[in-house]
Amino acid sequence: MAIDPRLEAEMARASPPPGPAYQLVEPSPWPIRGAFSALLLASGLILWVYNLIWPPWIVFSLGAVGVAATMIGWWRDVVREGEAHEHTPLTQLSLHYGMLLFIGSEVMFFVAWFWAFFNSALFPGDSIQVVRDKVIGGVWPPQGIETDDPWGLPLLMTAILLTSAAAVTWAHGRLEKGDRRGLKLGLIVGIALGVIFTCVQAYDFTHASFDYSGNIYGAVFFMATGFHGAHVIIGSIFLSVCLLRAFLGQFTPKEHLGLTFAAWYWHFVDVVWLFLFMFVYVWWA
Amino acid sequence: MADATITPGAKPLEPGPLVGWRRYVYATNHKDIGTLYLSFALIASLVGTFLSIAMRLELHEPGLQYFTNPQIYNVFVTAHGLIMIFFVLMPALIGGFGNWMVPIMIGAPDMAFPRLNNLSFWFLVSSFTLFCSSLFFPGAPGSDGAGTGWTLYPLLSTKGHPGPSVDFVILSLHLAGASSILGAINFIATILNMRAPGMTMHKMPLYVWSILITAFLLVLALPVLAGAITMLLVDRNFGATFFNPEGGGDPILFQHLFWFFGHPEVYIMALPAFGIISTVIATFAGKSIFGYLGMVYAMVSIGFIGFIVWAHHMFTVGLNANTQAYFVAASLLIAVPTGIKIFSWVATMWGGSIEFRTPMLWAIGFVFLFTVGGVTGVVLANAGLDRVLHDTYFVVAHFHYVLSLGALFAIFSGWYYWFPKMTGYLLSETIGHIHFWVTFISVNVLFFPQHFLGAAGMPRRIADYPDAFAGWNFVSSLGAYGAACGAVIFFIGMAEAFYRKRPAPANPWGPGATTLEWTLSSPPPYHQFEVQPRIS
């Protein structure tokens, strides 16, 4: 078992090490590059959608490249600092808080989508909203919408994602026991299952019997499961970076914040899927 | 409070690692980033103030004077609200003073994530750029800019504004939201993890507490807004029907999601103000704050209850009676912890040796104005009364008393209080007093008559009004011109301080100022507390 970072931080507090208690980072060009790229990305999206320039995607693409470059450059710096042991025990604890809070904010983001879902699924009929009532017909799924069998592909996707989570947890445990082969194997299996999930979802999306536009069921279904799918892709990338770092000989049984956070993120993605499966696919199928 | 013996661990003054523009553009120092935030808020406030003066000029007399296309007036209303909330109050109260003072007050050398801190700031600049762009793209047919109000309700913001302007506003809010979420994560990690040995949670200065609670509200509320405006974005551009009844969507859903964010947002602006006022009143009453723990848990309960009262903004949309009854009761409940705070401030001053220095004047002004805005809030929380007052100038008066006057007075209080610490120069007390009295009188002339207008039924967000409302509108506009003069005096005071360069001592306020920033030089060294101070 790794030493609990909280315990380690407590020890550091009790008897401060001779060096600084926290990492003080040097000035960095990444934040302003990232913010400027985000500006390009956002305005580029509008220019593209409204076809205001030619080629329409140019500003958006520049922004996307800039954001990607910022992420790579910034996190490369963070990894290097971690490898150089600049992350003091207290700084590591800060990073734990930071990741937990980030996941907390993601949870609240999904609250909005589930809110939209329950607003329709629990209250499909509302006598004061005449037009809406006519379209939905007082039932959920709305009249005229045919949904897929939850015990087909959706159940398979659930199994894939849960197995992937188990593999990642297993990999984490192997690393803590010093088994780097197990670490790599577990990550490879976890990532592969994540990619398979994405493929199955792509198949599911393209074969759905309802459209995205024009009806509330399609809007809620595709946005909620779509944002989850985007998080699966992000999580797969996160785990792939961890795999790459594992092959580069990084991570020690005691210090592997990147892997811990990737695993946390992966489990968060898992739990969101369980809620989607339970409510969107099974309960109101 | 950290008023026991303190061993400061400051190093002597040392230069920062970068000079010139790189120091600020690539900044990872909490004080530099705090300065950036304050400067940004100052610039944005000029834009926001210009918009409000233009509106008061229009309302100076009945008829359309300047806004021959009244939709442009709607654009001004929208821009004024969004700029003041997202680009003035929040950056000043949280990003500005929070960045400057929170690490120092807890005895830390910097924020937990210094680069993230800088990203939060530059996201805000990108966000403001997008917002300003929205003013120059088509919105509603026949005019540029988004005239949706800051609430962006569909279908006005979807079918009513086919042009790209509203999309600029939406993406601007996405970036502002990301900025605030990242900043909030930073503050929470800093406050929970980087307190100096001996500074337990219950010894933290109240301003730090207020920022901690505010940060939690930001992390929990803003992602829900992000979801809501994403739905708006896909409804507008990609044919989704979240809010479009013709596809089975529900426009009221947007209002629920928006106000689930929007009501905590009110406390996001009010809580840091509470923190500043508690600090200033304790300093100039020469006493520690009355009922410290009560003050802390009053803020905690305001933060919590703030999440379960959102639909009191929606009493007129057709909620059923039971739902309305619940939201009335829950909203009235907030008066209890708020009352605890008001009475504790009064009790802190009671029997103290009060010094009427400029920050204290603003703080006392805050207590008065916030109480007025608070009691009109109690009025509006009643669904029956709200049926009459909804969307009238009574609401405008109410939220300007708590925000425009409350939060703004707290910003000025903090500004006059910490200016010597941040710049190393003393402000002129005389100019500060004149600034306070001109502003205090003008804003009351400006906003108090709006209660009468609202009670008489004058609707808000409309560029024109019947002659019957002319009298109080005239008075209100005079108040606006007076408040603008107050802003000029503010800049004169700042210019005077930078011109005269009266050096500020480490603690210009005397023994009442007990928080850690007053143990450091003015301005503080580039990195303070690299060796942790111990608080006993």
Strand content bin of chain A? under 5%
Main sheet properties of chain B = 2 strands, antiparallel
Number of helices of chain B: 15
As residue ranges, the low-confidence spans of chain B are 1-15
Beta-strand residue percentage of chain B: under 5%
Overall morphology of chain B: globular
Structural class by helix and strand composition of chain B: mainly alpha
Radius of gyration of chain B, taken over Cα atoms and rounded to an integer in Å: 23 Å
Average pLDDT, all residues of chain B? 94
User: What distance separates the N and C termini of chain B?
Assistant: 11 Å
What fraction, in percent, of the residue positions of chain A are helical?
over 70%
Q: Quick one: how many beta strands of chain B? A: 2
Assembly state: heterodimer
Name the largest protein-protein interface in this structure: A-B, 69 and 80 residues
How would you characterize the overall build of this protein?
By secondary structure, chain A is mostly helical. Helix content of chain A is 72%, strand content 0%. Chain A contains 9 helices and no strands. Chain A has helices spanning 5-14, 30-49, 58-83, 89-121, 130-136, 153-176, 180-206, 216-247, 257-283. In chain A, helix 1 (5-14) packs across helix 4, helix 2 (30-49) packs antiparallel against helix 3 (58-83) and helix 8 packs antiparallel against helix 9. The radius of gyration of chain A is 22 Å and the shape is globular. Chain A starts with a helix and ends with a helix. The mean pLDDT of chain A is 92. Chain B has 536 residues and is an all-alpha fold. Chain B is built from 15 helices and 2 strands. Chain B has helices at 21-25, 30-59, 70-105, 114-134, 165-193, 206-238, 251-285, 292-305, 321-333, 335-349, 358-380, 383-389, 393-423, 429-455, 470-500, and strands spanning 6-7, 534-535. In chain B, helix 3 packs antiparallel against helix 4 (114-134), helix 10 (335-349) packs antiparallel against helix 11 (358-380) and helix 11 (358-380) runs parallel beside helix 14. The longest helix of chain B has 36 residues, at 70-105. Chain B is globular and about 65 Å long. Residues 1-15 of chain B have low confidence and may be disordered. Chains A and B meet through helix 2, helix 4, helix 5 and helix 8 of A and helix 1, helix 4, helix 5, helix 6 and helix 7 of B.
